[in-house]
Amino acid sequence: MTIPIKDLPRLPRLVHDYFYDYGKVDEFYNGDFRDFAAFERQTERVIARPLPRKLLAEVLIEQNQSYGCGSRTLGHIQKIAEEKACAIVTGQQVGLFSGPLYTIYKALTAIKLAEDLNRRGLGSYVPVFWLASDDHDLSEIDHIVLLDKDRRLENVRCPMPSGDAKIPASNVILPPDILDCLRRLVDVTRDSEFKAGIIEQLADAYRSGRSMVEAFARWMTRLFASSGLIFMDAGHPGLKALGRDVFYREIAEESPSTEAALATSEKLRQAGYDEQIHLHDRILNIFYAEQGRRTIQRNAAGFEIKDPPQTFQKEKLLALATDKPFLFSPNVLLRPLYQDALLPTVAYIGGPGEIAYFAQMKGVYDRFELPMPVIYPRKSVTIVEKKIGHILKKYDLQIPEIWSKADHIIPEAAKDAIPESMNAALRLALSHLDQDFESLAREIAAFEPTLKNSAGLAQGRMRQQWSFLEKKILQAAKKRNEIAVQQLRQAIDNLYPNRNLQERVFNIVPYLIKYGPAFMDKLDQAVKIDEYDHQIMTMG
Questions:
Q1: What does pTM read for this prediction?
Q2: Spans of all domains in the chain
Q3: Residue 136: helix, strand or coil by DSSP?
């Protein structure tokens, strides 16, 4: 079962057109994701690019072996080095216990697209997962959301350093509190035959004293053990050295990326689309990564580093970019370009937000003389468990209805619990009240005009009392219909938690605890690479 992408809540118009009217947005991208000729053209460009493939492979082997990878992953890395294999890339922040479900769907889409392109004989392709270790938004990665034993939404959080310091995830070391976090996870999740094993594997990855990045990569490596998925830590000094030209050029030309993106932003506005990345023409799209990630801004004296303030002449900053590239990291605009300067990227797997912001990137890629990858939408999935499916059927509800009117479903169900005879009597009595009072108000006004306002106030108070009575009746109906209310709330919390898509909120661990490691196989079978609509995966 599928649901059209256009029915997803809060879908940007740009993304709608990307799916349904690509001709309108063609100038902002590098090929329609449904057109395999676009992948062929990009493959030719990527293979023709000079890349330090062996040096790249050395770093990737070192990293992936430290994460506990299998032989297939090492074989894929060798293909990059020796067979000029191309990369199907995705990436995400290193969230606690793998973060939201869409992180899993991104990785799965990259794996499946690489396999599909290999079957089509378009070239040699391997899946790569970019670990966004430079990101400093720790409040987004320090917790997971799940439904507890009582089916209530629950946060399980691991304390992190204050986000005010702009500490990148690569510098975050898991504290002893991670043990409390794991114990909390045990306490709030239901028992199953798989629970002890899953928690043991999770604890093996997320050990106190280990970096957040390594813990995430180890856990994800275990989840995708047989797929050959390559993980790549963007903060590795060896990668910064290979990508130093991006930092150097951003400084030397005083942010050519901003100039190019601003020009594209204007075209997007003229086409009626919103820009996704807000830019400042004096701020570079790289950070100075000493004492946290610090903004670099041009001024009359050269370049000012923010918080704490520090001024560099251009020549000094360029020398640092050459000799110590590990002191720099890209921001949201230059991150994709830095990624694709290092990798032989044919396609990037992104969610709706990424599809939208890549529209601002075409000119940036052109300015840096790099081929922009084909932007391929990650698979979008809602998991419907057996009990939730029964609730939907019982109340004749479709998932898009849950998305569009979550705040109204329970009150409407309670209203439905009121006998129609009572509803009819209430409507009739209210109509009589209004008619009779209007006649009375006219009589009063004729008798004493100064009492006209008093009559109006009295009518208003009577209407308020009537409204109060209706609410009391509705509350009584809710109590009588408590089971229905509980079931509907359960369905809403399951399918639209915190009024957001399930894939953006829930974590995979509770599903693994309930269904075991085979859940990953079921997910792999359910997600179809040639299906571009939102997919429904039924369990049970």
A1: 0.88
A2: 244-330, 396-499
A3: coil
